[in-house]
Design brief:
8 helices, alpha+beta, single chain
Length: about 280
Amino acid sequence: MSKRKQQAEQPGSGDESESERSLVDVDFEFFDPNPDVDFLALKRLTTQLFQADAQLLPVHDFADLVLGQPLVGSSVKCDGRESDPYAFLTVLNLHVHKDRPSIKALTAYALEKSAADPALHAKLQSLLGPAAQNQTQNHLGFVFSERLVNMPPQIMPHMYRMLADEIQWALDDNEPYDFTHLLLLSRVYRLTASEAAELHAASPRTKRQRPSEPTQGAGVYPFHPEDDIIRKFATHTLDYAWTHAQPREDDAFGLDTGGRMMLIPANRLRDIAAALAEAFPQPSS
């Protein structure tokens, strides 16, 4: 059984010119994690999230852990429960699962990367450091959120709203999801002024683009537009470079990518869902 069906719009393909490209309606369905089907797709999404640094994380163990809690978290599919997920959102208790290889690696990774921001690092040390490993309170939840390229952000408000509901239902059943903070890792890309100009020149203007819309200049941008909303609720945000990124030449092809870390008070999760629903409303039928 699906949790809910949602209709969203995606760019169509075919013989239209770039300026006349149409939008097509796609039905997305939301499902609980399915250990029988989702394993390989979840590994791919995890590798996509961590990019070159995925080699630092036991991805197999991480996917097993996520799929081992089927009542918390959601996947998005287009062809029924037995099809591959296109998006995933869930939360893991980093204290309860501290002895799992993937969580040990993830904890070490977060502490290493946060060292560039002393305030964030001190907070994570208080939540994840050796002195905090056996505490029964002040638990930190790791929010895993990733989806395939071109999946519309309109799916995210419902996914975050369901996650907030499922955490509350788990708490009602005395399950260990009582978090003080949530840690979200995501991806960003960096543009130089010349790269931004090239991207703007190469981007077609569709019927839905407005001449007054701002264009990207040099800077750091999230791959997922909802991250700009979520970071407004974060007490700490840090952009960082991949540990295993390949050296990048001045004329290198492709985007210069990195990671983003956001630490969010857990009691703001419903506020995030509401803000996302306002920013990314469902298309009118």
